[in-house]
């Protein structure tokens, strides 16, 4: 949303961001990029976080009565719904996931009361919104099930300039990978990201290609398990600055998106996907969510939760330089044609103007 907001502000659209005090870094509050920031004071206790944010953010919304209220995610859509009730302005929701399903899938919610409350909030938010903007097409059945009206798809984009270059030599020397084949995963280490299946595939990949290693960039609750599973075939770089990620992708021969969400309504289209495309590297991805629709033509698609199938696809690419080059060129072209942030901002702004 920050990527969209900055580009809209640069086009002289007045953009206000209402941010919860509990989770906003100081540098974000004082950033000078044309966005008007408002801090919604939030009670920093888990059970009071959401109710206090709804109330505080609603009070911040009301003076902005001539706005279109654009909520990021379905639960914050309740704030937009209440603001609409009080001001009669139009609302839109940018839908990234089915949030109750996401909470259940991550094992965060087991209480029937919480789950029912989440479902009610989703229903009220979605049916109240004048426009639903889905991150990818796999969310459309979820929105229809909630009785959504008009919806469009506007995906995330890739940082084309940033990921068109990177210091591959620095990363290869740092991790002792000079002259070797490198497979990379960059992202979270939680169950729905699927990195555990790549960790299972890593020894198979190393067995098929003795000079191959798999780098895991990122962190999360599964990291120790992944390190044990991958063994000597894996290299764990940990959490790195975003500015270093282009170097890791540039050092790679193959990039992997092993996503495995437990719910079909949990999107796996993250910014990582489009940064991968922007890097112009060959990609292996699992057939979940909107992956096939979004990037299928520019990567090898394999079934989810299948370490051996994942390893076989990676091995095919490591052994075929021409195929890697072909898929890498397709990935970069797709990023330039469909997933440029400026093109996507045009689409979002056009939809909001029609709504206005």
Average pLDDT rating = 91
Distance between the termini: 19 Å
* Percent of residues in β-strands: 15-25%
Overall number of domains: 2
Oligomer category = single chain
CATH topology of the largest domain: Rossmann fold
> What strand line-up does the widest sheet have?
9-8-7-10-11-12
How big is the Rg? Answer: 21 Å
Structure, briefly:
The protein is 46% helix and 15% strand. With 356 residues, the chain is α/β, with parallel strands linked by helices. The strands form 3 sheets. Strands 9-8-7-10-11-12 form a 6-stranded parallel sheet, sandwiched between helices.
3D architecture notes:
46% of the residues lie in helices and 15% in strands. The chain is α/β, with parallel strands linked by helices. It has two domains: 172 residues, 3-Layer(aba) Sandwich (Rossmann fold); 177 residues, 3-Layer(aba) Sandwich (Rossmann fold). A six-stranded parallel beta sheet has the order 9-8-7-10-11-12, sandwiched between helices. A four-stranded parallel beta sheet has the order 3-4-5-6, with helices on both faces. Strands 1-2 form a two-stranded parallel sheet. Helix 7 links the parallel strand 5 and strand 6. Helix 1 packs across helix 16, helix 9 packs across helix 14 and helix 12 crosses helix 15. The longest helix has 18 residues. The radius of gyration is 21 Å and the shape is globular. The model has no long low-confidence stretch (mean pLDDT 91).
């Amino acid at each position: 949303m920050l990527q969209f907001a900055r580009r809209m502000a640069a086009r002289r659209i007045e953009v206000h961001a209402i941010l919860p005090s509990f989770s906003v870094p100081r540098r974000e509050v004082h950033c000078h990029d044309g966005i008007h920031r408002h801090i919604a004071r939030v009670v920093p206790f888990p059970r009071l976080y959401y109710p206090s944010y709804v109330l505080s953010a609603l009070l911040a919304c009301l003076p902005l009565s001539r706005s279109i209220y654009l909520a990021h995610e379905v639960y914050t859509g309740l704030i937009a719904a209440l603001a609409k009730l009080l001001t009669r302005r139009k609302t839109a929701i940018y839908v990234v996931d089915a949030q109750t399903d996401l909470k259940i899938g991550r094992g965060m919610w087991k209480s029937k009361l919480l789950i029912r409350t989440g479902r009610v909030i989703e229903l009220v938010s979605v049916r109240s919104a004048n426009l639903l903007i889905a991150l990818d097409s796999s969310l459309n059945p979820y929105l229809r099930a909630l009785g959504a009206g008009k919806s469009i798809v506007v995906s995330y984009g890739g940082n084309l300039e940033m990921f068109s270059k990177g210091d591959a030599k620095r990363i290869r020397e740092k991790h002792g990978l000079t002259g070797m084949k490198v497979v990379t995963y960059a992202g979270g280490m939680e169950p729905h990201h699927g990195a555990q299946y790549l960790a299972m595939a890593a020894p198979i990949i190393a067995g098929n290609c003795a000079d191959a290693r798999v780098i895991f960039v990122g962190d999360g609750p599964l990291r120790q398990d992944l390190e044990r599973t991958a063994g000597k075939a894996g290299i764990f770089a940990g959490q790195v600055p975003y500015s270093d990620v282009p170097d890791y992708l540039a050092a790679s021969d193959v990039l992997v998106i092993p996503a495995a969400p437990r719910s079909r309504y949990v999107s796996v289209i993250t910014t990582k996907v489009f940064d991968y495309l922007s890097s112009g590297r060959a990609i292996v991805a699992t057939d979940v969510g909107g992956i096939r629709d979004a990037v299928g033509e520019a990567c090898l698609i394999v079934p989810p939760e299948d370490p051996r199938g994942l390893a076989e696809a990676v091995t095919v690419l490591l052994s075929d330089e021409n195929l890697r080059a072909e898929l890498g060129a397709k990935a970069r072209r797709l990023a330039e044609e469909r997933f440029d942030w400026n093109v996507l901002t045009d689409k979002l702004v056009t939809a909001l103007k029609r709504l206005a």
